[in-house]
TrEMBL record, chain A:
Recorded family membership: Belongs to the binding-protein-dependent transport system permease family.
Name this polypeptide is given: Peptide/nickel transport system permease protein
Xref: Pfam families: BPD_transp_1, BPD_transp_1_N
SUPFAM superfamilies tied to this protein: MetI-like (SSF161098)
Organism: Nonomuraea angiospora
Subcellular localization: Cell membrane
UniProtKB/TrEMBL annotation, chain B:
Listed name of the protein: Peptide/nickel transport system substrate-binding protein
Subcellular location: Cell envelope
Matching PANTHER family: PERIPLASMIC BINDING COMPONENT OF ABC TRANSPORTER, PERIPLASMIC OLIGOPEPTIDE-BINDING PROTEIN-RELATED
Classification via Pfam families: SBP_bac_5
């Protein structure tokens, strides 16, 4: 903030706001990186040894050169690699991700079906992680070296070190099979599947939009265990980072000064400590979301969750190249968007960042 | 330092968040649990691409196809040795085996109520053949014609006694040609009807497609206009579920059928569940390459004999678990012309050592390639390969294991580059003629480097079998082919892994079928 009233405003009229310039720069960078992602996914998927024809046609169809040739032509595999990439890019510009060799549908249509399922799961997990992870971290820091601090630190260590797929298996077995507390596989009960029209693709939101409470409660019930399983790692991570960030801020002179001035503890915590600790927390949360996306592959398999993880696995094992590239692009773009959000949040929280 | 009340507030916030997330979790009851439900839930590991019958060739797709479309002929229960009438009330194969005449049954209607005609049959079968989809080869060289409103003739250039066994394949289901054409169906490669057929049914079967998702779930609903016996379940949900989860789901009552449990997984099932254990129609075999450019060792007939005598078949069966059976020949036990079980090879370590000595190859080392992550009926290839390696070690053969992901391994296998290979063959259709692919110069024969002309006697036996007409003559001919193959061919048939299907006590009438696994319309409620 400027000491002279009005000066900051005058400065703004002459030039674009630093935050806007910062945003434009970041978005341009993101577009450039998105192009980089298309190149990397294309090169990597085409470097895989193995022939997609063998993976996609039956044993007998492979014996018929006419069928094999037609299949290759149909999927553009008879063209040189550079031409395939140019065609791929041209398609992308028009929002066309190609046609899946597995489902024979546009990859974009497949992704539109599977991505929301994963986002719903990962979104629920990140919400739980943020609330619990930050809360636990703050508690641990405030009660440093006391019993609750030790307990939370052990818990976070467990959360970080337990493999997610193992936890998913155990949670499914214990809560669904043994205790019979949670419903089974999928996003809703088998009989309710497709009961509400897909508007957002998020089962919980769509159920609310359709006013179907039975579908909503079924969807939430199905979401609980996989989301908690996924969240455990990020809760552990956030607890640790929040704790150390809060402890560092608590040791700063300005906090001590505030405390000496006799400000209430609540004010100190929320206005001084948490605000300063927020930058490292956001960094970790952004990274954690990335790990959530990769963690969903196995969790989705165990809970029969029809998300992009399952789609990616199936595409990779059947060498469905357009689908693999589509998944790579979407996951890459999600990372980019999260990084963009994190960067923008830095800019909002800490004005010094905008000038860099 | 923070006050106690702040700590409490933060804790409370956390607890509230947890509670909010947890709501609804405990109140769920599994869908259609127990007996008497009108919804049937089937869990299976999806192998599914499409619901368009003309493009279907994957196990899950065939379950859907069987329920939604009807074929001219079918099989009664699990018996695949005799095709029986379905849409055709009778059929007759000409003496030379080239012309199959089928009389259409009267009164069959499609799901939209319109009658099923001879024109629909001609259109559907021609479409499958000329669209060049995966199942096109089923009707290669077969001309489809209508002689009158209720008679269809299928004419083949060469004698084709397998045709009645091919026709029950759900890929040859009859489409409502009017509806299909309206949605882009054509009888050439330009066909565009698949998208439509993935969302709706244009068939005459007992079920219709309610929703279709290739990687998560397919929902079928009973066809209200079905002219035949109404199925017992109003709704059938087929879900994509991993084997480990399938087991828990069916035990808990969340599903009524689990299709993909391995022999290990079905041991110790509670008495409240029914376990159907049958040998699958998949035959796992070893191949020894006959191309001397690939190997000097495996081309030696005495070496192959040593392998054949050196494998511990009983040990492999133990590994494969319940329901599995030794494969006496390449043709699985369910099919016409299968070798009787007592003709299966037996382990003979001394005989194997003698054969190896007679081969003149001392201390041979061979590479064994196989798909490392592939499982057939829940059985993985890795432990099988390791067991074979140990068996042959005792004989004096060193096996160098070369596992590779299936998509990579397939390349070498298809191109005939493997010195030794461990693979399986599932029937494309339940007729022994499908196994002529193992002869010299044919699909699988070439994969073993076995070129046409390499074994005149076996090839002559194969030609005879291909043209034999009549069940008895065909049976004898195929037994002869396999006996000769076992004596001097490059293949060592190993086992048929078990297909274990677990069902709730309430489900009746389940039969394992080698082509469509399970016919959902046959299932009843106790």
């Amino acid at each position: 903030m400027s000491d002279i009233p009005g000066e900051a405003r005058r400065g703004r009229t002459r030039r674009t706001h630093p935050l806007v310039r910062f945003l434009i720069r970041r978005i341009l960078l993101a577009v450039l990186m998105a192009w980089g992602i298309t190149l990397v996914t294309f090169v990597l998927t085409n470097l895989v040894p193995g022939d997609p024809v063998a993976a996609n046609l039956g044993q007998r169809a492979l014996g018929d050169p006419a069928i094999v040739a037609q299949w290759r032509a149909e999927h553009g595999l008879d063209k040189p690699l550079w031409e395939q990439y140019v065609l791929h890019l041209q398609g992308l510009v028009h929002g066309d991700l190609g046609t899946s060799q597995q489902s024979h549908r546009p990859v974009s249509q497949d992704l539109a079906e599977f991505v929301p399922a994963t986002l719903e799961l990962a979104g629920a997990a990140i919400l739980v992680s943020l609330v619990l992870g930050v809360a636990f971290g703050v508690i641990a820091a405030l009660r440093r070296d006391r019993l609750s601090d030790h307990a939370l630190r052990v818990l976070s260590l467990i959360g970080i070190s337990v493999p997610t797929f193992w936890l998913a298996l155990v949670a499914f077995y214990v809560f669904f099979y043994r205790l019979q507390l949670t419903p089974g596989s999928g996003r809703v009960d088998a009989a309710l599947n497709g009961a509400v029209p897909a508007v957002s693709g998020l089962q919980t939101v769509d159920a609310l939009l359709a006013g179907r409470w039975d579908v909503f409660s079924s969807a939430v019930g199905h979401l609980v265990t996989p989301a908690l399983v996924l969240a455990l790692y990020t809760i552990g991570l956030l607890t640790r980072f929040t704790r150390s960030a809060v402890l560092e801020v608590l040791g700063q002179d300005y906090v001590r000064a505030a405390r000496a001035k006799g400000l209430p503890g609540r004010v100190i915590l929320f206005r001084y400590v948490l605000r300063s600790a927020l930058v490292p927390i956001i960094t970790v949360a952004g990274l954690a979301f990335g790990s959530l996306l990769s963690g969903t592959v196995l969790v989705e398999a165990i809970f029969a969750w029809p998300g992009v993880g399952q789609y990616a696995y199936k595409s990779a094992t059947t060498l469905d190249l357009p689908a693999v590239m589509g998944v790579g692009l979407v996951v890459g773009v999600v990372y980019l968007v999260i990084n963009l959000i994190v960067d923008v949040l830095y800019g909002v929280i800490d004005p010094r960042v905008r000038l860099q | 330092m923070a006050t106690r009340s702040q700590t409490a507030a933060v804790l409370l916030a956390g607890a509230l968040a947890l509670a909010a997330c947890g709501s609804g979790g405990g109140s769920q009851t599994p869908a259609a649990s127990g007996g008497g439900g009108k919804t049937l839930v089937i869990d299976t590991s999806f192998d599914l691409k499409t619901a368009d019958p003309g493009r279907t060739y994957e196990p899950t797709g065939l379950i859907v196809g069987k329920a939604v479309y009807e074929t001219l002929l079918t099989f009664d229960g699990a018996d695949v040795t005799k095709p029986v009438p379905a849409l055709a009330e009778s059929y007759e194969l000409s003496k030379d085996g080239k012309i199959l005449t089928l009389k259409l049954k009267k009164g069959a209607t499609f799901a939209d109520g319109s009658p099923l005609t001879a024109d629909d049959v001609v259109f559907s079968l021609t479409r499958v053949r000329d669209m060049k989809g995966t199942p096109s080869f089923l009707l290669d060289g077969v001309e489809v014609a209508k002689t009158d409103d209720s008679t269809i003739t299928l004419t083949s250039k060469a004698p084709n006694p397998a045709l009645p066994y091919i026709l029950p394949n759900p890929a040859l289901g009859i489409l409502n040609s009017k509806v299909a054409k309206e949605h882009g169906a054509t009888t050439d490669a330009q066909d565009k009807a698949e998208q439509y057929l993935n969302s709706a049914s244009a068939g005459s079967g007992p079920y219709m497609i309610e929703s279709f998702n290739v990687s998560s779930q397919v929902t079928l609903k009973a066809n209200p206009k079905y002219y035949g016996t109404k199925p017992a379940y109003d709704k059938v949900v087929i879900r994509n579920v991993e084997a480990a989860t399938q087991k828990l789901n069916v035990q808990r009552g969340d599903s009524q059928i689990a299709l993909n449990l391995s022999g290990d997984q079905v041991t110790g099932m509670p008495a409240t569940l029914q376990v159907k254990k049958t040998a699958s129609a998949n035959v796992i075999f070893l191949l020894a390459n006959q191309d001397s450019a690939i190997s000097k060792t495996t081309t030696n007939p005495k070496f192959v004999e040593a392998v054949r005598k050196g494998v511990d078949y009983a040990g492999l069966l133990e590994l494969a678990g319940e329901g599995s059976a030794q494969a006496p020949g390449v043709i699985p036990s369910q099919l016409l012309g299968a070798l009787p079980a007592d003709q299966a090879a037996k382990r003979d370590v001394e005989g194997a050592k003698a054969a190896l000595a007679a081969s003149g190859v001392s201390n041979p080392t061979v590479k064994l390639e196989y798909p490392s992550e592939l499982t057939v009926n829940g059985l993985s290839f890795q432990p099988l390969a390791e067991r074979i390696q140990a068996n042959l070690k005792e004989v004096g053969i060193t096996v160098d294991l070369q596992p590779a992901p299936v998509t990579t391994a397939l390349d070498n296998y298809r191109n005939g580059k493997e010195e030794m290979g461990l693979w399986y063959w599932g029937p494309d259709y339940p007729d022994p003629s499908d196994y002529l692919a193992f002869l010299p110069g044919k699909t699988v024969g070439l994969r073993a480097g076995w070129k046409a002309g390499a074994a005149k006697e076996i090839e002559a036996a194969g030609d005879k079998a291909a043209t034999a007409i009549g069940d008895d003559a065909r049976k004898a001919a195929y037994v002869d082919v396999q006996t000769k193959l076992n004596a001097s061919g490059p293949f060592v048939p190993l086992i048929q892994p078990g297909q274990n299907i677990v069902t709730a006590a309430s489900v009746t009438g389940l039969e394992y079928h080698p082509v469509w696994t399970v016919d959902v319309a046959d299932l009843g409620v106790k």
